[in-house]
Amino acid sequence: MSRLGDVYEVFRHRLSGIGPVVIAGGAVRDHLMGLVAKDYDVFVLGTDFETQGGALASPLSNLEQVTPLDFHKSEPFLVGTVKWDGSVIQVMSTPATSVDALLDTFDWNICLFAYDGSIHAKEDIGNVGKGRTLRIHKVTYPLSTLRRGFRFSERYEMPLLKSDVERLCREVLATTIEEPEAA
Questions:
Q1: Does residue 123 sit in helix, strand or coil?
Q2: Which of 35, 119, 158, 166 would bridge 30 by S-S if both were Cys, CB 3.0 to 4.6 A apart?
Q3: Under 8 Å between Cβ of 19 and 43
Q4: Phi and psi (nearest 5°) for 158?
Q5: Alpha-carbon gap, residue 32 to 41, rounded angstroms
Q6: Is pLDDT at 67 greater than 90 in this prediction?
Q7: How far is it, in rounded angstroms, from Cα 38 to Cα 43?
């Protein structure tokens, strides 16, 4: 079994009593590209963070917790970040009730991959990598999407579309507060 499969089986076993478990995003992409994942984003489908966050945290309580100072990622539904067998695992609740619905919430084409015992892809893996174009799938949080775009562009040597950068900059500016005029 692959590392992706091992992580999936362990966390499916720990969390499936709460909801269906899916690994999505970069770890699946990296697996398909033959790269080592920097972390694994494990989602529990059909869960509400406000009411089920504690239930999701309980099966993680015997694992080493990773503090935000050690590993930072801003996700609105992040339940906990833990280490398992040398890997960083981020567990998130999501109201999405299917793999397709979950992937539709992701921002960049480079993230549109999932694993729930089989691979799901909303992007051809051949479109990901050096020299390919990084494209917006959906704007989630404009500033976060912009930051992630620059990080992905640099890490994978994928150019950003000027129109995507301009769109994101306009959306970031639309959410900022005007500075008071000087007296």
A1: coil
A2: 35
A3: no
A4: -115, 120
A5: 15
A6: no
A7: 16
